[in-house]
Write the structure tokens for this entry.
Amino acid sequence: MALPWSSWDPHQRGSWAWKGLLLTALLITWIPPAPALLNILAIPEKPAQGDNVTLLVRGLPGDLVAYNWYRGTDLSQGHLILSYIISPADETPGPAYTGREAVRPDGSLDLRDVVPEDSGSYILQTLNQQFQTDIAYGHLLVYEILSPPLLLANGTKLVERRDSIHLLCSTPSTGDVRWFFNGEPLPISSRLGLTPDNRVLVRHNVRREEAGAYQCEVWNPVSISRSDPVNLTVYYGPDRVAIVQESAFQTGCTVEAEFNASLTLCCVTRSCPDPEYTWSFNGQTHESTTRYLNISGMTKDKEGTYTCIAKNPMTELSGSASVLVKMSVATSAMTIVPVPTKPTEGRDVILSVQGYPKDLLVYAWYRGTASEPNRLLSQLPSGNWIAGPAHTGREMGFANCSLLIQKLNLTDTGRYTLKTVTLQGKTETLDVQLQVSKGSSLTMGTVSPPSDRRLPWGRILSASAPTKQEFLEDLCYVSPI
Ligand SMILES: *[C@@H]1O[C@H](CO)[C@@H](O)[C@H](O)[C@H]1NC(C)=O
Ligand SMILES: *[C@@H]1O[C@H](CO)[C@@H](O)[C@H](O)[C@H]1NC(C)=O
Ligand SMILES: *[C@@H]1O[C@H](CO)[C@@H](O)[C@H](O)[C@H]1NC(C)=O
Ligand SMILES: *[C@@H]1O[C@H](CO)[C@@H](O)[C@H](O)[C@H]1NC(C)=O
Ligand SMILES: *[C@@H]1O[C@H](CO)[C@@H](O)[C@H](O)[C@H]1NC(C)=O
Ligand SMILES: *[C@@H]1O[C@H](CO)[C@@H](O)[C@H](O)[C@H]1NC(C)=O
Ligand SMILES: *[C@@H]1O[C@H](CO)[C@@H](O)[C@H](O)[C@H]1NC(C)=O
């Protein structure tokens, strides 16, 4: 049977006899502990590692002669920390004494520089003048000062929907663990991936939204410590690939570009990292390896299917998109308007041409129908105009196709015909009726009734009659004036 009252004191001879007496008395008078009137309180209540703590005793009767303090839950000799005789004050250490404990005259126990291992139960045993003992239990919980946990990932570069997040919050501490994502508490959805002890986070088939900085934190009532962040990268995509451009007319996957127009096709998608781009034109590899493909100076031979392939080297996924680039059919928006609209004898008039072809190569003006003897003038590819057989010396051509007729006389009234030819060899013929009024008269000029309501001032007579070659011959094989 363990001795309830310690006399362990090999060095202090002076108090030997006295203690032997006490021991005997205690053995005789030992009674089971009554419901304690005593209570023991740790001050501070939640001590941190390194603090000085007092196990404060309250409710002690006044007739005490000695105290014993034990560590643990039972009164055994090996657990004795200190024996204390009140008068004269005398303290005797026991086997459980660490050098950091001291008993106060009021029975309280001071513990200096506590460590987490000091946590546990403490028992105070008292002896009164009648050699009766009493005991009280105290409890001490020393919180450690936490050092940062180490966050370990078994992979930080993950592929969406394929890889798993696997994070371990490594800490020797028993403190609670909580998690942070981009500095905020971990979203609830991700918290579902935590093990019951919160030490391991697992998320299968990672999503792109889960990319970011993860941290874990250990905490107890006296300290908090957070790990360094671990950045997770989630590779994804390419998502749906599309080709966009801004400079030409587009319906669905068909882009219509005007002759000589420049356009930039841009391949768009979402992907991490940026994908590698390859382009093809009518099935042939194109040189562009960026997201852009430039088409400058649109011509017939640049018509066709342009395909962009975006490949993500990390996910090994790819996607593609195609557009059909066509040259816009030159819409016959060409009109001729006399300026002024009511020309009078002796004044000038301009037969002003709007909407002439952008890819104009040459044109010719005729008085009457488009036949060589009626040719007033023609403009050559050089930009200079030359007079034709019907030239009166009062007509001039402009680069914009317009015709100036100076010093009108009444016989200038009649039909005028414009013929244009484009670089593509497309010809167009349009005429206008000119009405010259007498100098003083206010007679309205009249124009031949339009055959096509879209073209109030002129009408297309023929849209593809001669070939380019024929027309060039028609225009050029005439003697300049
Ligand atoms: C604990 O007590 C010792 C000696 O009494 C003193 O030197 C030390 O500063 C105290 N520590 C704290 C944390 O108060
Ligand atoms: C991470 O660890 C888990 C479980 O051990 C394993 O299934 C997974 O393949 C590992 N991931 C990587 C990228 O190593
Ligand atoms: C994680 O990402 C943040 C911001 O993107 C950056 O400042 C930090 O250096 C990164 N940390 C590591 C370990 O790569
Ligand atoms: C084509 O466009 C370029 C630049 O816009 C211009 O310099 C050139 O004259 C144009 N060519 C034709 C035939 O219109
Ligand atoms: C394509 O055009 C864009 C602007 O439209 C320009 O920034 C880019 O440098 C061009 N790329 C090439 C290869 O000419
Ligand atoms: C054509 O050019 C002439 C001379 O530069 C100008 O007077 C006329 O207004 C122009 N016509 C149009 C429709 O641009
Ligand atoms: C009108 O001009 C034409 C050509 O210049 C000329 O032959 C004719 O005589 C002129 N008519 C009048 C009435 O001036």
Observations:
- The longest strand covers residues 318-327.
- Helices lie at 16-29, 188-191, 468-476.
